[in-house]
Design brief:
Elements: H1 3-11, H2 14-34, E1 38-47, H3 61-64, H4 67-72, H5 75-82, H6 84-94, E2 98-103, E3 109-111, E4 117-121, E5 131-137, E6 141-146, E7 152-156, E8 169-173, E9 188-193, H7 196-206, E10 207-211, E11 218-225, H8 228-285, H9 291-328, H10 344-366, H11 372-456, E12 462-476, H12 479-504, H13 511-517, E13 523-528, H14 545-560, E14 570-576, H15 583-595, E15 601-605, H16 613-616, H17 626-631, E16 642-643, E17 651-654, H18 663-668, H19 670-680, E18 685-689, E19 708-714, H20 720-731, E20 738-745, H21 761-766, H22 770-773
Parallel strand pairs: 13-20, 14-18, 14-19, 15-17, 15-18, 19-20
Antiparallel strand pairs: 1-11, 1-12, 2-3, 2-9, 4-8, 5-6, 5-9, 6-7, 10-11, 16-17
Helix pairs in contact: 2-12, 6-7, 6-8, 8-11, 9-11, 10-11, 14-15
Amino acid sequence: MDFKNEFFKYFIHWKWFLLSLILCLGIAFYFIKTIPPTYETSALLFIDKKQDEKTKIISTSANTTNESTKEENLEEEVRLVSSNDFLMKVVRSTNLNISYFEEVYKIQGKYVNEVPFIVIPTVGNDVLPQISYKVKIDKQGFTLTDIDSERKFVVNGYYGSQTADGLPFKIQLSPKALKNPSYFFDTEYEVSLEPDEVALKKLKKALDVVTDEDSKGTLEISHTGTSPYRSRKILSDIIVLLDKNIIINKQKLYVNTVSYLNQRIKSFTKEKDSIESVKEKFLKNNDILVMDSYIVEKTADRSVKNENSAINERQIALTNYAINDIRDSNGLRPLGTDYKLEAPSVNQMLLNYNTKLMESELILQRAQKNNPAYISLMTQLKSQRQEILNTLESYLSSLKQTSRANRAEQNIANSKAKNIPTNDKILGNINSNLNTKEGTYVALLQKREEAILNGAILESNLKTLNSPETNYSPIFPQPRSFMLGAFLLGLLIPFGIIYANLQLDSKIHNEEDIHKINPNMPFLGYIPRISSKDKLDNTANSRSLIAEATRTLVSNINYLLPGKNDDKAKIILVTSAIQGEGKSFCAFHNAITISNLNKKVLLIGVDLRNPQLHEYFNLNKNELGLVNYLFDKKVDWKSSLRKANDFSANLDVLIAGEIPPNPTQLLTNSNFETLIEEAKDLYDYIILDTAPVQMISDTLNFSHLADVTVYVTKFNYTDKSSVAQFNKFNKKNQLKNVGFIINEVNMKSAYGYKYNYGYQYEEAIKKKPWYKRSLS
């Protein structure tokens, strides 16, 4: 970034900066001298929140972790002091809806601590009108003037016994002023009234309540106003009122705490009795005296029942085995006596059976099977065997009945044993609830005693660390910062306007603007803005601005011309984007400058739609010119030439002539190229003043004939978008060897550039210093 260039963009408007600074500093100085200064008054309080913990009802482990935070939290106090109800009491206690002033200057009012009179409202403070009166004390009493309506009121006497119609108050002298009323005759005062709501809003706006983060438990209250005395009075009243509110809130808390504790104690008594009744009913329903004994009893009963059932099942199995074994015997072998049955009669019958069987074997050893004694004995054995089976089946049936009874008892015992954990849990929950209720009941009794004790010794936990003090260095307006702000604002306003104008400006002003759009395009120079009387001053010896500028321009154009070995003329095409950018003016002066260098120059007006060259030579635009030759090749174009002897003997001019209806067709026929080829052999330079390329295509039809193209832009006129359109022509190679110039440049400045051409010899000789002009 070119900081010098950026600086001069703004510095050229130094007059506006100076005017803005004078206005802003003047207004700031006037404001400082007329506005009453505003002071800040503050007080520092300490509120011991640890005392409040004594009145808390229940402290749980959850809130003990945040105990320190709760002790130091003053949000309740901040909200209280900032509340409307609290501040409304301050408004009424300090009469903030009535303000007194002493008129020191007509443009400045000074708030006074004490005035020689007292205003007593005759209507409610909430319906007081928002109005101001000027007050003067004289021999008769008081003269009051409504500032808005200029209505006057006269109150006779100094004691406030008389009222005036339309005044919402009575007025009387203060006891101190009654001693010498004449002392106040020459002074004018002002009293302002406003309803409570308005005074409340002003107080809230002027009051600030914050907590100190570094010093826990401290509260800072500050008030800003024009009267330090009133500010201190307001803060003192706030402190007193806050202290009273803390005591009142503690008393309410004490009463509510005791009432709450009594209510909870009564409720817990009922709940404890209810739980004890539930426990009693549960023990009775479950036949429980002591839970531990109940568990031992039910466990032992289940074991006995299970063992009895197992023994009975074993007897059933043994009995079935005995029955099957006896049935499988053929009556000739002894029956087993080791069945381990718990039936003595069956065992005895088995022994008897085996004894008789042995007798039958002894008989059979001595006699045959047909022996009557043997047959009789065998009959008896068969009968005994059947009797044994019948006895076993009866025993088995008895065992099965016993088994069914045992299973029922076993299920009952098992069920009771399984219910032991449930009953133990239920009883444990009942005991736990009962213990909790009993513990809470005891804690509530203790808290009630503590609350009653604290209520007997209630005291405020508010301490004033710093009484209300006023910082007599005004916070508004602060002259140094206010004047500095005015100075910066005085610079910022014109800077912002100029910056916005520069950002919105889309016109071409200097070489930098062109190079930002077309960075690779050559820049040929500037043509300065000159007055109409000076625009033709471009002789060979001229030191005018236009002469010096065009000499520089011609020198730069020569650098663009391609080197040629032949002696034919060099063709310079002068064009622009749109009409009115001064291409004819530039072509005219370039032709004069080149011709003054002893070069033969032909200047041709090729803009057939809006010709302008004839005006520079005081010719009639309808005279014979280029159009006549293009229309009829038989016409000798040389006969249409005009010698510009007033400017240079080496300059010939061929104007456009009468405007044709078909300029494009005329320029695209071969006549124009023939003319150029013939002129190349006669002149050193041929300058073509052509039509704008962005509006019509005439120039593009013969632009290939040029050796160099001079693209004219106009200072603060040509839009940057028009220059950007040139890129399209450049990409298509429709314009050859192009160089840009800027026409009608303000020679004093153009965004910081100064354009001074030549040495200004003549002006330097004629111009005298300012201190010598007055002597001549």
